[in-house]
Write a structure and sequence with these properties.
Order of helices and strands: HHHHHHHEEHH
Number of helices: 9
Strand content: under 5%
Number of strands: 2
Distance between the termini: 26 Å
Helix content: 55-70%
Low-confidence stretches: 198-232
Strand order of the largest sheet: 1-2
Radius of gyration: 19 Å
Length: 232
């Protein structure tokens, strides 16, 4: 499978750099809306739509947008797409729209979207950028869904709204904020056990830690470890 090709980027977004389970991005909606599988899928599809189209548009305009105004340009593009998604959901899925509430407009500041725009779509052609958007969107949806299945099953005793466990056996903490952290921590432990490279993997933090410890206090000249343009 050719690296940076369409299908490789889909695989990369789902498995190697899953934004939820590996890169640990977009934690605000991940922890907030995963009380049910319905909410998780709705948020995943909404974010995926914005991610795919923003990647395509930014890739098309990558040689036109001046470097100095690239971030404001990304904000305008993403905000326009989120507004379209918000209005469509309000019109066609009002119940889901009410459930997700403020988290639909907050897609505008989702770090997954801006991260992929800056690190990939702004530097690659349309097809790889499309694959990246599709892969990251599917990966995000899968991550949300896994967390939601566990939380809904243990906290509400149901699966996709279908009651399975009697009320007296529900573990209600899993539908509260602490339950989201419990499930995420277990999934992170599994991810580290499988040695997946991600933000939560200690081996990836060693380099950054050594750079911090070797700081000589001369911040103005400390550019050897920081790729400003690349965002690292």
């Amino acid at each position: 499978m050719k690296k940076e090709g369409f299908f490789y980027q889909i695989y990369n977004g789902i498995i190697k750099e899953n934004p939820t389970l590996v890169l640990m991005l977009g934690m605000c909606p991940t922890l907030a809306v995963t009380t049910s599988l319905t909410n998780a899928i709705g948020m995943g599809i909404s974010t995926s739509a914005v991610l795919i189209f923003s990647n395509i548009i930014i890739s098309l305009l990558r040689n036109i947008i001046p470097d100095r105004v690239r971030i404001p340009s990304y904000i305008v593009i993403v905000a326009s797409l989120v507004t379209i998604v918000d209005l469509l959901m309000q019109a066609y899925t009002p119940a889901l729209y009410e459930q997700l509430g403020i988290y639909i407009p907050l897609i505008v500041v989702n770090c997954i979207i801006f991260g992929r725009a800056e690190s990939f779509a702004a530097k690659n052609k349309i097809m790889p950028s499309l694959g990246d958007g599709v892969g990251m969107g599917i990966g995000f949806t899968i991550g949300l869904s896994i967390i939601a299945i566990v939380r809904e099953f243990l906290g509400s005793g149901s699966f996709y709204g279908i009651n399975i466990i009697p009320d007296e056996f529900h573990i209600s903490i899993f539908v509260l904020a602490p339950g989201a952290f419990f499930v995420l921590s277990i999934l992170t432990a599994i991810q580290n056990k499988l040695n997946l490279k991600g933000a939560s993997n200690p081996s990836n933090l060693s380099k950054s830690a050594s750079q911090i410890l070797s700081c000589n206090g001369d911040c103005m000249n400390c550019v050897s470890h920081i790729d400003i343009k690349g965002g690292n």
